[in-house]
Amino acid sequence: MAKITASVYTSHVPAIGAALDLGKSHEPYWQPVFAGYDNSRQWLRENRPDVIFLVYNDHATAFSLELIPTFAIGCAAEFKPADEGWGPRPVPTVVGHPELAAHIAQSVIQDDFDLTIVNKMDVDHGLTVPLSLMCGALDPARDRWPCAIIPFAVNVVQYPVPSGRRCFMLGQAIRRAVESFDQPLNVQIWGTGGMSHQLQGARAGLINREWDNAFLERLIADPEGLSKMPHVDYVREAGSEGIELVMWLIARGAMADVAGGPAPTVRHRFYHVPASNTAVGHLILENH
Amino acid sequence: MAKITASVYTSHVPAIGAALDLGKSHEPYWQPVFAGYDNSRQWLRENRPDVIFLVYNDHATAFSLELIPTFAIGCAAEFKPADEGWGPRPVPTVVGHPELAAHIAQSVIQDDFDLTIVNKMDVDHGLTVPLSLMCGALDPARDRWPCAIIPFAVNVVQYPVPSGRRCFMLGQAIRRAVESFDQPLNVQIWGTGGMSHQLQGARAGLINREWDNAFLERLIADPEGLSKMPHVDYVREAGSEGIELVMWLIARGAMADVAGGPAPTVRHRFYHVPASNTAVGHLILENH
Amino acid sequence: MPLHKPYLDIPGTTIFDAEQSRKGYWLNQFCMSLMKAENRERFKADERAYLAEWPMTDEQREAVLARDLNRCIAAGGNIYFLAKIGATDGKSFQYMAATMTGMTQDEYAAMMLAGGRSPQGNRVIGEDGDAQPHRQGRAPHTPSSST
Amino acid sequence: MPLHKPYLDIPGTTIFDAEQSRKGYWLNQFCMSLMKAENRERFKADERAYLAEWPMTDEQREAVLARDLNRCIAAGGNIYFLAKIGATDGKSFQYMAATMTGMTQDEYAAMMLAGGRSPQGNRVIGEDGDAQPHRQGRAPHTPSSST
Ligand SMILES: [Fe+3]
Ligand SMILES: [Fe+3]
Fold it and tell me: Which residues form the Extradiol ring-cleavage dioxygenase LigAB LigA subunit domain (chains C, D) (predicted)?
């Protein structure tokens, strides 16, 4: 039986990927960002899963306005890093887990989540930057990501995006799906995006350190309550792109305590401002 | 305020479209099929809506295995008849209603249905054959369909398809969405596909006249109970492609009686075997 | 995969579920490519060469070459995709359906005109309907010779 | 559209909802086309000619030519799509963000280093934060001259 052993939460700022790819991670501006993930890289080496179920959003890369899935699960054998306008990031190809992905798709659709199944998709910084933060710089040709990865893309670009509550319930359905898979896989679920940031208009550059830290607090201790927060609160308090944080609730909903198990252990917590236009938040929660 | 005034249910057998397009509708084989829609064409002329919300499934035409949305709503200004391998059907282009479609999308996503929004899509026989049956032969260049049409594509090709219950609940959400639109539009909702048929394997050609008629009966009088029927019953009793009938529950769920209003009037009912490999069923229900 | 598959006991029926879809991915995508006229031409000009361009299994390629739709389905094919092979061949859907049942097209068409195949005896494997596996080998109808 | 839009009272913020998306469809699809190198070249070679190929409004075309992202957003643009114009121009995202705020890139970067823009006074239209409409005309920072 497969099992979700831990969840990881992190921002996925594209500039972080660029800094790493251009060898700037030791510059004074970036050093504190990457330092916040030193323990996490060590932790991932020691707690290497078989599969990462990686929740992220596409940023007008794989999905244009021609077709916008609310939830899209990647069932392919591999996913190429996307060319977002400057050529693809120099990182390894993402190797999927078609069997577990198809199993989860089948299970959560039967649980009344109306997924879109995707068998061909390039993945943008939303997916690759969290991997880079947690794995460090890798050579696209020589190296590989440490395990298989199932991309799960959430629409947070065009409104209405799914509600926090919907995301939290989906996480619970994903946990049930994983636990009904009959291979003994160690699965992590990652929620990415956020924290507070606004990339548009006169309010661009908005950061809400207080709100972000309260969000981290509630995500740990009161995810059910947090899941009821309406979209407009995210936007008003954490900026128009702060809405990406609803994706963290998918990962949080998949943790054991939500289904009556023991509370997770907080293995790591980190917060930093700024990375380019964005507040960086990061959390690792372990199941027992 | 927009209002759903009626629902129409019909099979969408591709051979029916071919018969019409090749001028065979008066041949002895096809005459009884088209005769079953004579009253319906008259009814539609007398009850012309502003918009038809047309629930159908794509048959490996617009969606390959690269991407399979469970529910996809067409929000474009127009949709071209697809080339399904013999050239596009000679029928008028489908004119959409982007404003109402976007409104419905926004509303039902906020109601926890995880739609895929589609702004570019060709539509196959699943959508155009019901229109042809209800409108008769039209000239692709000179004529137009009688009103705007919002295509709503449901995955019934790759399992798991959405449950009958999910479809029935979605219909209810669509009704709420339509009724919150602030233009006085007359909207019909059509459910298409079925009835019993199996297109594959040693059991190809299966027809279950008794089951089909019981389905029509329950769709009229006990849709809530009918919506609880599991997939496997459709497949076992009505053939592997009989599963298309779950789409009828979306249209039925949008009728007034489901939300506590008066029972609909049965304006027309028709059943015929065979059209090519399929049992043809048809029903018109009117709200008051 | 421990997901419940209550449809496995239905005779002569393969449900195109996630597992079949993964198995048949390239077979079905090959079929999808036949929606384009230029691909149909290239396929017709040299079927083996065209099939070789797709990462299909040998079994899938052989099943396509033999136009054996039941084998194609067993190998992960879905009928809506496979129908595009028939369209390329200029065959009707009813012709294709007939080939899967061991009937000639005329026999199949006559069955449909007479009300279609009865579900009687064909609901569960082990009954004695005409679609049961044990009756496929010794069907009263001889298989169509035109493939 | 009577759907509740509780976000309309947030200053300096345009939510990309269904209505904006319909309005900005071709503007955003034009931006998407810049993901291909050959399209970027054609656009750079003759911006007006390239824009004329898209069924955009004149206002959308002018806003793109002026690189006025706030006008682009008002005309239905979404920042993730619009960012592809900046990428084509070889500009950083922080540069683009700055142009929408009436700050120079240096001023904007300094604000971010100092902890970012405060939500204080910027939550609801009518408060007195630096992102309020009534403070956009007379911002302490002069708008960047490089567009
Ligand atoms: Fe993001
Ligand atoms: Fe169909």
Answer: 27-112
CATH level 3 topology of B3-286? Protocatechuate 4,5-dioxygenase; Chain B (3.40.830)
C136 pLDDT band, cuts 50/70/90, is confident
Least CB–CB distance from B112: residue in A69, A116, A166:
A166
Which residues on A lie below 8 Å from B72 (Cβ)? 67
Chains in contact with D, where contact means 3 or more Cβ–Cβ distances below 8 Å, are: A, B
Compute the distance between CA of residue A107 and CA of residue A88 in angstroms, rounded to an integer: 33
CATH code given to domain D1-7+14-89 = 1.10.700.10
Report the half-sphere exposure of A140 (CA within 13 A, side-chain side): 9
Is-contact B66 A119, C-beta < 8 A?
A: yes
What is the C-alpha to C-alpha distance for residues A272 and A282, in angstroms, rounded to an integer? 9
pLDDT at C137: 60
- Model confidence pLDDT, tens digit, residues A157-167: 999 999 999 99
Cα–Cα dist A242/A233, whole Å: 10
d(CA B65, CA C24): 10
Rounded Cα distance, A122 and A78, in Å: 9
> Does C have 3 or more CB contacts under 8 Å with D?
no
Q: Cite the active site residues of B.
A: 125, 197
Architecture of domain C15-89: Orthogonal Bundle (1.10)
Query: Nearest to residue A16, comparing CAs of A276, A245, A282?
Result: A276
Comparing CB atoms, the residue among D29, D73, D116 nearest residue A64 is D29
Q: What residue spans define the domains of chain A?
A: 3-286
CB atoms within 10 A of CB C67: 17
Q: B232 — contact with chain C (CB < 8 Å)? A: yes
User: How close does chain B come to D2, measured CA to CA in Å?
Assistant: 6
Q: What is the ipTM of this complex?
A: 0.93
User: If you average pLDDT over residues A179-185, what whole number do you get?
Assistant: 96
Helical packing angle, A231-238 and A209-221, nearest 10°: 140
Give dist(CA B129, CA B124) in Å, integer: 8
Q: Do B182 and D19 touch (CB under 8 A)?
A: no
Domain extents in chain D: 1-7+14-89, 101-141
- Read off the amino acid at residue A243: I
